[in-house]
Predict the structure.
Amino acid sequence: MNDQLIISKIQQLHSTYLKQELLFFLDYLLTKQHADKKLIKKPPQFGCAKGTFKLAEDFDEPLEDFKNYMP
């Protein structure tokens, strides 16, 4: 896209309101561009969550709620 074309179209705007709207939209696009760069995620590495979760000591023990269903 040609920058001169963009500038000439902006110069055709005579309304102050429309110029203000254009500024808001440009700010939105710049924010979106910055956010899109942050959204690029790296694939997780094996073991990256090590130490994040801690299981209870009795994790494998049967639950009290299911005693009626067990032999």
